[in-house]
Each structure stands twice: as C-alpha cells, then as structure tokens.
Design brief:
- This protein is an alpha+beta fold.
- It has three domains: 4-81, no CATH class; 86-216, Tetrahydropterin Synthase, Chain A (2-Layer Sandwich); 230-278, no CATH class.
- Helix content is 26%, strand content 31%.
- The strands form five sheets. The chain has a four-stranded antiparallel beta sheet with strand order 2-7-4-5. Strands 8, 9, 10 and 11 form a four-stranded antiparallel beta sheet that branches. Strands 1-3-6 form a three-stranded mixed beta sheet, with no helix packed on it.
- Strand 4 and strand 5 form a beta hairpin.
- Helix 2 (138-163) crosses helix 3 (175-194).
- The radius of gyration is 31 Å and the shape is rod-shaped.
C-alpha cells in the first residue's frame, strides 16, 4: 500500500509546514480543496500542486525522483491555504519627516491602521518570505511585512498630499483618498515582491504633534493675511497693495470673483455674469 501524506493543520492557518522521512517511490500526497502544496527536497522547491492525489516522486525524471522502489527520501511539505486571510495592525514605528504642501512648514507625521492579506502565488510567497527557516511563523511574517510596508508609506502619503495641495491639519478629511492611494501602491508591492494579495487596507489615524499643528496653522494665517490674488491675472499681491505688480490693475476697485468684471462698490450681483458679490 502506498504511503500517504495528508494535510493535518488548521484551515485558518496561512501556511503549515510538515515533514515526512523515509518516503518510498510510490508515496503520494493528498491536497484538500482549500489548499495548494509545495514539495521541498534537498533545497529544491516544486511548483504548487492543487487539490487531489499526487505522486510525490517521478521515477524517471524531475528533481523529486527515486531510481527504484526500495529507495527512500525525506520531503518537506508546505501546505498553503487558498482562503485564509491574515489580518494585522500596522503603524509607522516613528513619525516620518515631511513638509506641509500648503505652508511649507516641516512637520512629523505618524500613521496607523489595519490590513488583511492572503497568499496569491504560493511559490513566490515561500521563496521570498518563508524559505528554509524551519522556525518561520506568523509573527516573523508580520514583522517582515511591516518593515517593507512602512518604507513604502512615507513617499506615497507625501506625494498624495502634494498632488492634491492638501494641508496635513486637514488630514482626517482626506483620509479616504490617502488610504485608496496607499492600497493601490501596497497591493502592487505585495503581489510583485511576495506573491500576496492585499484584501483590505485602511488608515485608522494620523498622529501630528500639537506644536506642529500650531506651526502650520500660524503659517496659514500669515499667508492669508499677507497676500491676495489679482482678479485679472491671478498673481499673488501683498496685502494693502493698490496695484497688481504683474499687470498694473488697480486693486482699490471692486471686481467680480467669477468673471473679473469691475463692479460698483454698492453692487450685490455682477452685471456681467450674475454672480453674487461677496
């Protein structure tokens, strides 16, 4: 009767590694519908085998082969779940330095949230994350993922805020946008580097010190007070200026903010476009 290797782990586990010693040429492995399996012998890794009963050895070709029935060999089996998802909390270990796009003030920002992933490409997952480490477990996996994740977060967040010309003091209002950008980036990274599918990704919160928030708000107030915009050419002009330094327009007159037409001081609506004058 052929020796049979079966999966004995939990369906909730992302992966389970098992070993079998002194298997003979007729040995087989049974893979449940919920899993795929990788066979490892002498440091060589097979392609993933799907659900069903499979011969472990090829007596004529391939790296998993035995020359005759009396030969025996030891084989490791890595059963990888198709359905199990691994949830984890993430957070930047220390706040990262960035510049507020609106004010140019240097600040430090910390982020935290949650994510969930599962294995999409079993062999890449094994080679990149599990490998020959017999003690590799979920905690080690999470640490490896977190280290790579935090290195990708900073540039994506900074670019998203800059592209949208968004102030970090308004981060809570733009959290969904930043989450979506980060999810796309992290999803691409997980698939390409680790063979993982990112199932969900959210930002729970941002941590900015009170001193940084106050510095940004003070700078915003200064900028609002110090400059206005020419209604004709949109050039920033200093507060109190009587003429635009770019086009020479008189700034003591009143103009419609919608179409730029000159309006009388007492006008409530623009005679050109009908917009209400503020």
């Amino acid at each position: 009767m052929a020796e049979i290797v079966k999966f004995t782990g939990s369906n909730a586990d992302l992966f389970v590694r098992e070993s079998a010693d002194k298997l003979h040429a007729a040995a087989q492995v049974i893979v449940p519908e919920t899993h795929t399996v990788l066979l490892i012998k002498d440091g060589m890794v097979s392609e993933a085998l799907g659900a069903g009963r499979h011969d472990i050895f090829d007596t004529e070709s391939g790296f998993l082969r035995l020359k005759k029935d009396s030969d025996c060999a030891s084989v490791d089996f890595v059963f990888i779940s198709k359905t199990a998802k691994l949830p984890m909390l993430w957070g930047t270990p220390t706040p990262f330095a960035t510049r507020d796009p609106i004010t140019g003030v240097h600040i430090r920002v910390g982020l935290n949230g949650e994510l969930e992933f599962r294995v999409a490409t079993p062999k890449k997952f094994y080679l990149e994350l599990v490998g020959a480490d017999s003690e590799y477990n979920v905690d080690k996996l999470k640490k490896r993922i977190l280290t790579r994740l935090t290195s990708a977060i900073e540039p994506v967040v900074a670019q998203t805020m800059t592209d949208g010309h968004l102030c970090y003091t308004d981060f809570a209002m733009n959290k969904q946008l930043v989450s979506e950008r980060l999810k796309r980036k992290i999803s691409e990274l997980f698939v390409a580097e680790y063979g993982l599918e990112l199932c969900s990704f959210v930002i729970n919160g941002a941590i900015i010190s009170e001193s940084d928030i106050m510095a940004v708000e003070r700078k915003r107030d200064e900028l609002d007070t110090a400059a206005s915009t020419c209604p004709s050419c949109d050039t920033a002009v200093p507060s109190g200026a009587k003429f635009c330094p770019e086009c020479g327009l008189s700034l003591s007159d009143k103009y419609c903010s919608e179409c730029g037409a000159k309006v009388s001081p007492a006008a409530k609506y623009c005679s050109e476009c009908g917009k209400k004058i503020k």
